[in-house]
Amino acid sequence: QVQLAESGGGSVQEGDSLLLSCVAAGFTFRGACMGWFRQGPGKQREGVAAIDFHDDTNYADSVKGRFTISKDNDENILYLQMNNLKPEDTAMYYCATIGGSCTPESAGIFGRWGRGTQVTVSS
Q1: Is 4 helix (H, G, I), strand (E, B) or coil?
Q2: Pairing of strands 10-13, 117-122
Q3: What CA–CA distances, in Å, run from 49 to 1, 62, 97, 119?
Q4: Cβ(113)–Cβ(22) under 8 Å?
Q5: Are 81 and 63 in contact (CB under 8 A)?
Q6: Are 36 and 94 in contact (CB under 8 A)?
Q7: N or C: which end of the chain has fewer CB within 10 A?
Q8: What is the C-alpha to C-alpha distance for residues 87 and 71, in angstroms, rounded to an integer?
Q9: pLDDT in tens, 26-56
Q10: How many CA atoms, within 13 angstroms, populate the side-chain half-sphere of residue 37?
Q11: Residue 12 in 3-state DSSP?
């Protein structure tokens, strides 16, 4: 059974950084396409980042240059390093397995995801 547990969210000021973590279990993490998506208050789901089994990464334009996705295949942990946070980054962030095309846009559509971790950025 796929299990994904996010942590690391919090309330920060604009310009601060956060590191989100996601512990995965129940599937072959090393060979999986993984990603993060977010959903802000009153907003639609937005794919943020994806990483494939070659460790190739892709990002949404809104976070490119500020966020970095990575994975530890030995510990089965997915990370999202978020720098220079902005108020518009405020959202619930979800870790997800991605089925189909390994792109940020596919995160939260095909696959499984966890319960999320809240990120709130104040100006």
Answers
A1: strand
A2: parallel
A3: 24, 10, 12, 16
A4: no
A5: no
A6: yes
A7: N
A8: 26
A9: 999 999 999 999 999 899 999 999 999 999 9
A10: 24
A11: strand
Cα→Cα distances 55→12, 35, 89, Å: 29, 11, 24
**Which tokens belong to 86?**
């902005």
Amino acid making up residue 35: G
Task: Please provide the size of the chain in residues.
Answer: 123
The CA distance from 102 to 17, in Å, is: 26
Give per-residue pLDDT as tens, 79-116: 999 999 999 999 999 999 998 899 999 999 989 999 99
**Is residue 7 within a helix (H) or strand (E), and if so which, with residue range?**
strand 3-7
**Locate tokens 């596919």: which residue?**
106
